[in-house]
Amino acid sequence: MTRSTTDPLASPVLTLRASAEDRHVAALAAAAIGLSLAEAAIPLPIPGIKPGLANIVTLLVLYRYGWRMAAWVAGLRIIASALLLGQFLSPAFVLSLGGGLASLLILAFAIRLPHSLFGPVGVSLLAAFAHMGAQLWLVDVWLMPGGNLFALLSVFLGAAWLTGLVNGLAAVHLQHRLQAPPSAS
Amino acid sequence: MNLRRWLACLRKGDWLLLLGLLAAVLSLAARQAGSLEGQAVIRAEGHVIAEVSLRLNRVIEVPGPLGLTKVEIHAGQVRVQSDPSPRQLCVKQGWIPPGGAAVCLPNRVSVENAALGYDTLNY
């Protein structure tokens, strides 16, 4: 992000000017934060399993604006939604951050796969498994060392499969809607 | 969008990933189905001294006439980790399969993997 500031010695007021890209990132992150908050209101039976709807936004940004923007949007979403939900710096935040970083790393690689073979659904699946894998690893190594997560592995990975598929399909659908002329939608 | 158009959104690699990952998850679930509620029954001198779940990793020390027998539970499996018996038969047996048992006769300790479900003995 580029921040042009006036000379702090000359003027006591420090101004940060937001570039057009900054505003764009903020708008997209706001959409992702909205989805995060909305899904926090959904009651879910097993802790640790969430639809991860905000990742639809990350996926769309990745396809339209590239990995750097996607990383900004995902990072801002993770921090801002944790602040809003009162989870900042709590274990839930660390898990969210770990999962987010892992899925961003996988996305950097997945977006380079040939587009004729791998669409958003495949990319979303890979990211969902990276997300879940990193979180399970964190829980196993840091949060609950000694607890046997192996027995629950299939449940969590099954959830990653389902959410990866659903989010991927949602991203495909939104891509079509965004590309189509407004009258057709 | 109807179902056919949804399916048309998936490319070859997507199908490969979807089916491959689903197969991996299902085979994992199938492998664990029996061991999910497994229990280990540990006996010393013929008396049951512990019935423990296989869900938590730990090492249980069982005293016998020759010394300590260490029973290890790891990732839903159970084995005799070490034993003072001279021939080490129960240690060499390795991980005990569901329904199986390892008997450390000189130290009078036995470990049984009492998995839920049916086998030829309790059917």
Provide a descriptive summary of the structure in words.
The complex is a heterodimer of chains A (185) and B (123). Chain A is mostly helical and 185 residues long. Chain A has helices at residues 20-40, 54-65, 67-85, 91-110, 120-143, 153-179. Chain A has one domain: Arp2/3 complex 21 kDa subunit ARPC3 (Orthogonal Bundle), CATH 1.10.1760. Chain A has six helices and no strands. The longest helix of chain A is centred in the C-terminal third of the chain and has 27 residues, at 153-179. In chain B, a hairpin with a 2-residue loop joins strand 1 (39-44) and strand 2 (47-53). The longest helix of chain B is centred in the N-terminal third of the chain and has 22 residues, at 12-33. The radius of gyration of chain B is 21 Å and the shape is rod-shaped. Chain A binds chain B through residues 113-114, 116-122, 125-126, 129, 146-148, 150-151, 153-155, 157-158, 161, 165, 168-169, 172-173, 176, and chain B through 1, 6, 9-14, 16-18, 21-22, 24-26, 28-29, 32, 35-36, 54-58, 75-76.
What's this entry about, in short?
The complex is a heterodimer of chains A (185) and B (123). Chain A is an all-alpha fold and 185 residues long.
Q: Which short descriptors sum up this protein?
A:
heterodimer; A: 185 residues; mainly alpha; Arp2/3 complex 21 kDa subunit ARPC3; globular; B: 123 residues; alpha+beta; mini-chromosome maintenance (MCM) complex, domain 2; four-stranded antiparallel beta sheet; three-stranded antiparallel beta sheet; rod-shaped
Mean pLDDT of chain B: 84
The assigned structural class of chain A equals mainly alpha
CATH third-tier fold name of the largest domain in chain B: mini-chromosome maintenance (MCM) complex, domain 2
- In total, the number of strands of chain A is 0
CATH class of the largest domain in chain B: Mainly Beta
How much of the sequence lies in strands of chain A comes to under 5%
Distance from N terminus to C terminus of chain B (CA atoms, Å) equals: 51 Å
Helical proportion of chain B, percent range: 25-40%
Strand fraction of chain B equals: 25-35%
The shape of chain A, in one word, is: globular
Q: What string, H for helix and E for strand, traces the elements of chain B in order?
A: HHEEEEEHEE
Enumerate the strands of the largest sheet of chain B in spatial order, edge to edge or round the barrel: 2-1-7-6
Helix and strand element order of chain A: HHHHHH
